[in-house]
Design a protein that fits this description.
Elements: E1 15-24, E2 27-31, E3 38-41, H1 49-55, E4 63-68, E5 82-86, H2 87-93, E6 105-109, E7 116-124, E8 128-132, E9 142-151
Antiparallel strand pairs: 1-2, 1-3, 1-9, 4-9, 5-8, 6-7, 7-8
Length: about 150
């Protein structure tokens, strides 16, 4: 006689298939509900450590929402993460005729060329553009909703 199997539980390093939503006071930043579910491995930096911590111990099939206080999910806003980038350098890296408007999000290659990071335009003048490289939800309270579809 076999015993009933219990649902798999999330542990550090688990591979997950899930739907999730990250939202701040201004609304959703990421929302996979209504689209294909996401797949990710815990501990690889795809989610912030504070968000990953909320997943540990949850069973497959769980649907939950967590409220994280300001600054916990993505840290506090850091003024040093706002940088001016010369238009000359931007032209060398991409389209020399690109127009940059406040609120635009621009992808930059990492120094080793293996990945990218994003900066939001906060100011522009004729010779340079100032980008904010803080996470959009840095320094804000975050709502994290998750539906765990699969846990390996």
């Amino acid at each position: 006689m076999s015993s009933p199997t219990s649902a798999a539980v999330v542990v550090p390093g688990s591979f997950l298939t899930l739907h999730y939503r990250l939202a701040g006071p201004a609304g959703d930043i990421i929302n996979t509900f209504g689209d294909k579910p996401a797949t990710l491995s815990l501990g690889t930096g795809e989610l912030s450590p504070a968000v990953e911590q909320r997943l540990i111990g949850l069973a497959e099939g769980t649907h939950a929402t967590f409220e994280l206080p300001a600054g916990e999910a993505f840290g506090e806003r850091n003024a040093d993460m706002q940088q001016w980038v010369a238009r000359k350098l931007l032209a060398q890296m991409g389209d020399p005729d690109e127009q940059y408007a406040v609120g635009d999000v621009v992808q930059f290659p990492t120094p080793d060329g293996s990945g990218s990071y994003a900066g939001a335009v906060v100011e522009a003048n004729e010779t340079a553009v100032r980008f904010d490289f803080n996470h959009p939800l840095a320094g804000q309270p975050v709502s994290f909703e998750v539906q765990l579809i699969g846990v390996l």
